[in-house]
Amino acid sequence: MTYTDASMDALRLSGDELADATVATLFERGEVGKFNTLMRYVSTAGAPLPDGLPEVAREYLQATSAPPAWVDWGEMEKARLFFIDNNVHISTALSFASMPACYVVPHVAKLLSATHSLKYPSKRMAETGQFTVYLMQPGAFEAGSSFIPAAQKVRLLHASIRHHLKQENRWDVDRLGVPICQEDMIGGQMLFSMLVLDSLHRLNIHMSVDGAEAYFYAWRVVGAMLGVDQSQAPKDLESARQFLDLYMTRHMGPSEEGAHLTRQLIDLYEEVVPGTLFDPIVSALIRHLIGDTCADWLDVPRTAWDTVVKAVPPLLGVLETIEDRFPLGAWALDRLGHLTTIFELSSLTRGRVMHYAIPEQLKRDYGVSSTVPRTRRWTPPAPTVGPT
Question: How far apart are CA 211 and CA 374, in angstroms?
Answer without folding.
Answer: 8
